[in-house]
């Protein structure tokens, strides 16, 4: 007659055999199983699971945890998604527990609770392996991001950001090593936080948003340090992802803030007060790079006054200048504070709308068009009106599109709007 351990190992082997058949029939795993001897793989995996289970039953916690971390690292390196990996463990656990309930001559309640803890340990310490690989690959991501996006002329801010990134990297080192943590986690003691608290800006809501992100980053740091101390790695993986995402959002916001501060000092069009082509490419590149990092599309649109030559010929250039100034004000009132407007040349204007959707982009351009159509300009007791044709391009690309290509497409769509009867909006997409 089999004893309890023999029964459990028999169940474990049988469950793995059936479970392995499920895995190899799953289309997701096909790409990982090409040119592999499945029989040898099944035997090797079964032996590994039995080995891990025996370590658990023997109470060899240190060796078991070490082996599980290696297993997590291996799956991360070959590209198995962490959520899917955990889901796979959950599925195996469910089948295993069902088989225990079917077993005869065993204390079901005792076995159930003994073995459910085994799967908790598997999930937790394979998560630790995934986490170590994530950190190894992503540790210097934010540092490289700053190096690539912040020019040398912002040296003082750059040094301060590097010190903040070093703080983050020290925390990441703590997560994968046994060293003691020596950094201060409180946001009120952070050099960058103190700098933000003392910043003076025309739009205080931008600074308030950055302070909120900064505090959130420090609060997440407290959480992940606590989870590491408690060895709750399954939860720690999610908090680590929040930490990196919030860090990226914060740095992106800092960069956007620095750009906006610099832009305010640059030359503007003397007639309309709008930005000129001189700064267009620099701003476009920053918005495009942030779009690629966040996955959020952005829009670029050409706006051209219809029949502007006729206005100049009939009423003179001073009236034409009034029309240009009026249009610039209408566009400004129709856009968000985070959007950019440029006097591109003559009667042509260009707008860049970050973080938008196709529906929102089209709605914004239609708002500009209808607001222009409703406007009247008084000239010597008479009222004149004017319209605009707009061509917009929504960019949904994971690679950087040259500004020249985007402008060419927006210009083409704008002329298409003119040929279609003027006073129209036509949008397209680049992906």
TrEMBL record:
GO CC, alphabetical: plasma membrane
Chain ranges of the GGDEF domain: 296-430
Catalysed reactions, as listed in the record: 2 GTP = 3',3'-c-di-GMP + 2 diphosphate
One Pfam assignment: GGDEF
Coiled-coil annotated spans: none
Domain of life: Bacteria
Gene3D superfamilies referenced in this protein's UniProt entry, alphabetically: 3.30.70.270, Aspartate receptor, ligand-binding domain
Documented EC number(s): 2.7.7.65
PROSITE patterns documented for this protein: GGDEF
GO biological process, one term: cell adhesion involved in single-species biofilm formation
GO MF assignments: diguanylate cyclase activity
NCBIfam families for the chain: GGDEF
Protein name per UniProt: diguanylate cyclase
Species this protein is from: Persephonella hydrogeniphila
């Amino acid at each position: 007659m089999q004893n309890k351990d023999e029964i459990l190992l028999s169940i474990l082997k049988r469950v793995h055999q059936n479970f392995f058949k499920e895995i190899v029939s799953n289309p997701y795993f096909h790409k990982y199983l090409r040119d592999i001897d499945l029989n040898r793989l099944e035997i090797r995996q079964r032996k590994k699971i039995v080995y891990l289970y025996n370590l658990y039953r023997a109470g060899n916690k240190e060796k078991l945890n070490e082996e599980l971390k290696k297993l997590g690292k291996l799956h991360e390196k070959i590209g198995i998604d962490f959520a899917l990996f955990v889901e796979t463990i959950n599925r195996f656990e469910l089948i295993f527990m069902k088989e225990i309930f079917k077993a005869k001559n065993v204390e079901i309640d005792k076995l159930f609770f003994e073995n459910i803890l085994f799967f908790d340990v598997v999930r937790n310490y394979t998560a630790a392996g995934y986490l170590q690989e994530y950190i190894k690959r992503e540790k210097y991501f934010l540092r490289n991001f700053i190096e690539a996006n912040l020019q040398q002329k912002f040296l003082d801010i750059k040094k301060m950001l590097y010190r903040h990134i070093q703080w983050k990297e020290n925390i990441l080192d703590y997560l994968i090593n046994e060293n003691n943590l020596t950094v201060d986690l409180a946001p009120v003691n952070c050099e960058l936080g103190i700098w933000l608290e003392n910043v003076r800006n025309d739009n205080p809501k931008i600074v308030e948003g950055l302070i909120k992100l900064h505090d959130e980053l420090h609060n997440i740091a407290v959480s992940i340090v606590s989870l590491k101390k408690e060895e709750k790695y399954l939860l720690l993986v999610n908090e680590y992802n929040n930490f990196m995402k919030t860090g990226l959002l914060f740095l992106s916001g800092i960069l956007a803030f620095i750009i906006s501060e610099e832009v305010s000092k640059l030359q503007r069009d003397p007639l309309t007060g709008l930005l000129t082509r001189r700064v267009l490419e620099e701003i476009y590149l920053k918005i495009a790079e942030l779009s690629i990092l966040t996955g959020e599309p952005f829009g670029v649109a050409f706006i051209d006054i219809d029949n502007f030559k006729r206005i100049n010929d009939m009423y003179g250039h001073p009236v034409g200048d009034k029309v240009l100034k009026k249009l610039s004000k209408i566009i400004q009132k129709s856009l968000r504070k985070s959007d950019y407007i440029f006097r591109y040349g003559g009667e042509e204007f260009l707008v860049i709308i970050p973080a938008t959707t196709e529906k929102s982009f089209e709605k914004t351009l239609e708002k500009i068009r209808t607001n222009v159509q409703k406007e009247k300009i008084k000239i010597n007791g008479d009222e004149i009106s004017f319209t605009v044709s707009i061509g917009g391009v929504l960019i949904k690309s994971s690679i950087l599109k040259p500004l020249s290509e985007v402008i060419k497409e927006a210009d083409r769509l704008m002329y298409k709007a003119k040929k279609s009867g003027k006073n129209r909006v036509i949008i397209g997409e680049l992906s």
